[in-house]
Amino acid sequence: MNFRFSNHALEEMGKRKIPISFVEAVLKNPQQILPQDEEITIYQSQIDFGTDKLYLLRIFINITLDPAIVVTVYRTSQIKKHWRNP
Hints:
alpha+beta; 5-stranded mixed sheet; 3 helices
């Protein structure tokens, strides 16, 4: 799937100091893909940002457009809250 970034997503990545290389890696190979609703799908992976602590990088994508648009991106330490076990 091809992706493009919304201005909001790029601003949030900069503000939250999330490297685009991390986002691209998750887009290519997410550990989990979760539907939020008919338009938005969440790609997420657990990542160490260089602090020896795992964070969950969550990427919200509007999949109804072509190419799909990355709407927003954030990281959280609340992995258990968002992680889905099979």
